[in-house]
Structures are given as structure tokens and as C-alpha cells.
Amino acid sequence: MNDCKLATLCLALWLPLTFGTAAHAADVRIAVAANFTDTTRDLIVAFHEATGLEAVASYGSTGKLYAQIDNGAPFDVFLAADSHRPELLEKSGQGVAGTRFTYARGKLALWTPTPGTFEDPKAWLESGEFARLAIANPKTAPYGFAAQEVLTKMDLWDSLQSRLVRGDSIAQTFQFVATTNAQSGFVALSQVRAWDSQGGSLWMIPQSYYSPINQQAILLTRSESNQAAHQWIEFLRSDTAKNIIEEFGYETEN
Q: Which pTM does this prediction carry?
């Protein structure tokens, strides 16, 4: 793997550390679930082209970003990977009532960059013929919780505990798999779509195996008077934004 590719994989882990130094130049500051990293980069470019405004994003697991917001982190908008945390912010008064909506519906996939790893993914998982299987932390990452639901439905959650390696976020989980530190892993389909390497093996998890991943956005109360933040929320509802979101493998609402 070349240095450029490795740097791309690590970007979602690095950006939260640099956010504090970059945020002063932004018109709107966004806390974004790690699975939405690549999509957000394209959205930020399109947002600037449409409005002339600058957006800066910080990426991480939904649970950890929520904790930062709850402790006063200076974000304007929260793009979560679930509906639960934005709803909590709205109920607590930290999110502006009426601004919460589903901007994307995520899809979970079992993936490895190695072709021919599993022709029958169910049989492969049941065989346990692998050393490590990556998932995001179910306590902080909605995609990790969805992975837990899948393995529980397949009666494999308990038996595979010794083989599971947990990423702090879905970005770190994808990194484990892309660098072959785990043979395979449950990742967001959008991450596979953004991967510009040589295919691999992919299983699109049936929707009946896990609860819908309704990713919601909300304007944070501390930034209710920030017109750029309102424009970002409005932009996410636009056809331009929806087209970009759908290109990365998400569903959007009409």
C-alpha cells in the first residue's frame, strides 16, 4: 500500500486532532460520523461552489462526537450515523427543534480487499476459518451496533468473540480490513464505494438482518443564529447533495 492511500485511510482519525486549529477559518463547523467522511468531502466542495461558504468537518464515531457536543465542543451542525443521538440533543435543548432530519440511510457490508475470500459469506462466517473479523465498537458506532445485530441474528455473536477486533469508529474498522490486519470486516458500503483499489469480496447484508441505519442531521442550538449553518442544513436537502450522497451508496428521502 502506498503512502498516499495509507494517509487517506487515516484521515478520519487525524482530522479531530487538527480541527481546533482549522475551525477558525470556517463559516460552518460540522461534526460528522466517520462513515460519511468521503461523502462529506465532496459535499463540502459542492457547498462552496453553490454558496461561496467554507465548511470544516471533524470526523469520528457518532457516540464520541455526541459526547464532545454534550461537553461543549464548538460545532454548528451534527451529522450522526443514527437518529438516537440527534434526538437526544433535540430533547435536551442542545439541538434546534424542527431541524432534525434523515439525510442518508446507510447500508452495511461484509468486505475484504482480497478477491475470492468468501463465495458463500454465511458459510465463511460460520466456519470461523479466519483470525480476525473487524467491526466498529457497537457502543459508540451505529454501524458496529448493526454488525452486532447481524452476528446475533446468525447465532455467531458469542462464538466469534475471540476473533473480533473492534475499531473506535467505522473509519478505523475499515482501516483494519484495508490494511489486512483483519481478514474481513463489517463496514459501510459507502467506504467500499470510495475505495479505489482492486475490488475484493463483498456481501451486501440483507436489510432484514439489522435495524435501518437512519443517519440524521441537526442544527445545534449554540449556532442557531449562524446563517451559514442553516444554509448547510438546507444544502443537504438539495438535489445536488442527494445525488452526491446516493453516488456513495446511501439512500435518501424524497
A: 0.85
